[in-house]
Input
Amino acid sequence: MDIGITDKDRAKITDALSHMLADSYILYLKTHNFHWNVTGPMFQTLHVMFMTQYTELWNALDLIAERIRALGHTAPGSYKRYVELSTIQEEDGVPSAHDMIRQLVAGQEAVARTARAAFKVADAADDQPTADLLTQRMEIHEKNAWMLRVLLEDGAASPAKPAKKGKK
Output
């Protein structure tokens, strides 16, 4: 293979992309699980938001894996391997809606960090297609984290807090 990127650099890039793929897959699965199992007063909003996010993640998995293949390496494709590579913890229970949002904020931020680290590897190797893919992924994950974080800030997914009494 002679695409202007050394074998050594392609191996480094595909390793970084494999971590990106694993984080994306674990976040996809967690988001889909939460879509199925969310309950409470924010059900409809969260159900739709989670569906939008897991659908976008599902489509991204193919882009990441195909970039690994285009660089001449095989993409990891087993759940066991994803768990080994991912920085995101699995969720095997059904947390409250508030905790779902909190976990998804952390997951979106984790994928953004993984993309940023992979970007540095791709950029150092002068791999513009991978850098472009990673730039797009960072933008999406940072925006998703912000949209989820807002739900935590306004207390929409948490129990109502009693109003503060003013001074007379």
Observations:
- Residues 158-163 have pLDDT under 50 and may be disordered.
- Residues 98 and 159 are 9 Å apart (CA to CA).
- The chain has five helices and no strands.
- The helical segments are 7-37, 43-70, 79-85, 97-124, 128-153.
